[in-house]
Automatic annotation (TrEMBL):
This is Pentacotripeptide-repeat region of PRORP domain-containing protein. Residues 138-152 have a biased composition (Acidic residues). Residues 138-164 are annotated as: Disordered. PPR repeats lie at residues 307-341, 377-411. It holds the Pfam family PPR_2. InterPro entries: At5g66631-like, PPR_rpt, TPR-like_helical_dom_sf. Keywords: Repeat, Transit peptide. PANTHER family: OS01G0167750 PROTEIN.
Amino acid sequence: MELHVRAADHAATVEAFRSMVREGALPNARTYTVVIAHLASAGFVDQALEVFRLLPSLRARRTTRQYNVLAEALAAAGKFEQLRWLVREMVAGDGVMPGPQMRAAIAAMREEGHTEGTEDFLEELSPNERIGYAVDDVEGEGDSEEEEDDEDAANRDKGRGRAQATLKPWLDPRELARALEGWEPREVAELEAAGIVWTPRLVCKLLRAFKKAETAWEFFCWVACRPGGFAHDRHTVARMVAILARAGHVELVERLLGKVRSDGILLPFATVRLVIDFYGLSKKADAAIRVFREADSICGALSRPNLTLLCSSLLRTLAKCRRGVDAMELLEEMMARGVLPDLQTFSGLMEHLAGAGDLKGVHRLLGLVRQCDLQPDGYMYSVLVRAYCKQERAALALKLFDEMRGAGVAPDAPTKALLVKSLWREGKLREAAQVEERCEDTAGGLPEASPGHVWTASAADLEKVFDIYYGCFTQPRAAQTA
């Protein structure tokens, strides 16, 4: 997609995205970065922002690069009200540190008199003369070290045109973290003697670079006691909490959360979600439930959409920890409070219960889907058909298949093949032949996969993104050019 964008082949870029979704691939944060940057560079800033707003429902992380692209485009278009919303999301929602384009956009917004909500960035906008070195400035997407390397190389290329006399010595946080990995007294003494001016940005980068959570914690505690006026803020605490949660250090996480609560520091909403998700990896279900119950005191009052996302994260963690009963109790509690899960959350729970052989629970969830006035999509139907077929209940799977066809949802080829195979095994040869005949009548053949994925993306959300993307480079594009 990025190669097509560079070649200004808009149709091929959109088609690549369409193929990705149709073939069952799940777009990641980097894919959406390409989409947002493509839209913004083509002048479709409002549409790029609309895609950006959809990312939480797709469970896609919103990255520094996306914020930079949108901030630059909004500032250039003079859309400062939307830029103010973007800044609020960056601070309270995602906890992202502003990149160079975002800082420039905030400065432009302040020059135009829009200062509300930008007071906390005054230090970021004013260079610290005590710092005698340069640190790589832009965070990568976070998917891999290679992506960070690519971003660093791009930044260095941009700086080659500057006068060499103005360049400061380069400090690479990853090399520094590698040298300190053992946290030996001699290395720590050399670090103290180096006279480094610690800033939240540098501390966050160093924390991220440590391979061991224990070393990151040692550094986190050590840097808080250094002379020079450094104090941990919401960014450094959020980074440390996420690192500890990923390693399963529940006691340290709870100590740190207790400390920030007593200090009146509110962490970003994304950090709370991340902690709950990481507790699913380390099988700390009880700790995840405690964080969920205390979320208001950690990140402030939750909006209804954010509460829905947090509930989905906890349900997924409970499923990973094989706590199906607790998951169903939480689901009932949330629905009683008017918090309705989305289709991908229901699909995830269905897949979990089906894997445990609980077909009654699966059928009950399908009833709750209808109770919420949600229309099952192709991916949910495929999850249900697979569940019934694996438990040798092909008759129930066939009933769902008929319901699916009646709703105008086309099955994907693997789901149809599994249903036919299960019907044959159970001796229902006529029904298997009927399924084959009905699918032969499908115009264009059956899709290779049903768009969507358990826990993360529904077909409807992916379709929204595609419709926005496709629409910008067809009739609207022609109208704009005219």
